[in-house]
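TEACHING EXERCISE
Course module: macromolecular assemblies
Task: Read the component lines below, then compare them to the predicted structure of the full complex.
Student: A.B.
Group: 4
Components provided:
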Amino acid sequence: MSAVRVFVPRDSAALAVGADEVAESIASMAKARGLDVQLVRNGSRGMLWLEPLVEVETSLGRVAYGPVAPEEVPSLLDAGFLQGGDHPRLVGLTDRLPWLKSQERLTFARVGITDPLSLADYEAHGGLAGWRQAVALAPAAIVQQVLDSGLRGRGGAAFPAGIKWKTVLGAEAPQKYIVCNADEGDSGTYSDRMVMEGDPFMLIEGMAIAGLATGATRGYIYIRSEYPQAIATMNEAVRHARTAGLLGERFDLEIRKAAGAYVCGEETAMLESLEGKRGLVRAKPPLPALQGLFGMPTVINNVITFASVPLILAQGPVHYRDYGMGRSRGTLPIQLAGNVKRGGLVEKAFGVTLRQLMFDYGGGTASGRPLKAVQVGGPLGAYVPESQWDVPLDYEAYAALGAVVGHGGIVMHDDTADMARLARYAMEFCALESCGKCTPCRIGSTRGVEVMDRIAGADAQARPQQVTLLRDLCDTMLHGSLCAMGGMTPYPVLSALNHYPEDFGLATPGREAA
Amino acid sequence: MPRSPTHPEAVLASPDELRDRLRQLGKTVPAKGDPRVAQVRAIVAELGAQPGALLPVLHAVQDAFGCVPPALVGTIADGLNLSRAEVHGVITYYHFFRSEPAGRHVLEVCRAESCQAMGSEGLWDHACASLGLPAAGGTSADGALTLQAVYCLGLCAQSPAGALDERPHARLDERRLDALLARTQKEAA
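Instructor-supplied answer key:
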């Protein structure tokens, strides 16, 4: 009899709730009972409330059990879980779970299914097909495919990826670079981390294709220091990719560890950091596509953007473009976070609504209390009130609301949340993380915290004056800051003020709306 | 305006001496024969040639010594042909680099929005109180543990999250946090 394959994720989200202990326990107990088990440490399926999610390969497909505690392993073995036996932790056949089945997993097609560090597994599941296509194409033809797919930067700015690539392709320079921004610092986001830990070759393949498309021969992946697992996995994947010839003379890349500065997620600050300097934001122009890393033409994209490229090349741009709505084409890996009952990664075509995401997928709040506020798009994203939960997720539709899709992180708060406190935190975070180059951000954020404190402390009579001051300050930051750090901190602050004025001690509804 | 009294030449330092003294102001230098100097030179020799080498070098130095000792800043700067000010500026800019070693264990508790939505502020206060630390965190008096805030570990669906010595821990509550603390204390004992 051949060994039964048992999958225990190696994703940080699983490790953080004891996946290693579960894996050890399964290995040692199976051995003690003379059972032939082959452990595979896969990525995470993204059903993070069920982690550690253990899967067993059976003739019917993979059967999931979760969340599994190490001490439950004996009872699982007693219940015959290696044959898919019944147990209180049984979730069902993984592929048939509605939560997963109803998603449109393009980028996350392999994550959780394969062994992240097995190139053979990667190829067996469709990996490298895009790269092989690209090798046979002229650079301009690759760029055209990316243009045709409608792929836009998934890091938050949503700039069409193909246009960036085209600019770099057209630039004459002795050296060009491909830089992957993996400084995923936004609270509520973890899709980059899941790709790096769960399907690292996909990112490498996407960057290698970008190299072929633009004539860049060197690449960097800038990964935040808070992600030690992702750094380790990526480093190992790069070694495998070099051995296999995916990386080499034509295009090679290097992993760079960041050092805990949130603003280095801003592309020009990241370039400074890669150059070994303080992460100060650069003024644009010149565009990084023309004068980027070390002054050379540079493609800078986020992890998910690069990770979307292999599929576009493999299946053709139309396949990808057929998902989505309006000018937002393809899919977005959405991350449910905060006070959520069933948090995890939901990859859907653009057009899904917050209500579907937070209730159909998320199941409401973890605390069971009413949902009060939801912040979309990270610390610099707006709080979206209930009246807007049915707006389809789309870059333009959100911009029209004064909100942002950003990196697709959704942080839910129940009715115990104090929106004035969260707004103050947004300012405080900006003051803590500002690079200090421009005044509206460096000074404005500190003044913002002070004004917020006065609003909280002032008698009701003086409050409207302070609120006017806060709006004025936000206006300056919005229009006067060099980058999104100062320029978008007003989003959470003003949206909290506009939609939840009662938390600021103001009468409802907000009459001072600017 | 009264004329300033003229001092005898002998009491004044020469311009060269003055400049040297100014240069040494506020600087720490490694003690003669400090073995760490050779170690830093080896790190610089290994990593210093790549473009933009400073961050990789600083990471390697911090990995070796648990911090970037101020006394070695000059050695790093010399090796990379940078000024001390440039190296100092980079070290102090990034939250990750520390100039003094942390405690034997480092406990990070996430205080970003997602974790706030699941009570991380209460958890933080509990951690500070259990360790007898001020509200800003820090290192316990016995040097056993450093408690520091972190802003997102990417475990936001399982908030509140933290990390002990870079190992992630999620779905934390006071009981689980106490268990983590107890584990570090047991090791120390």
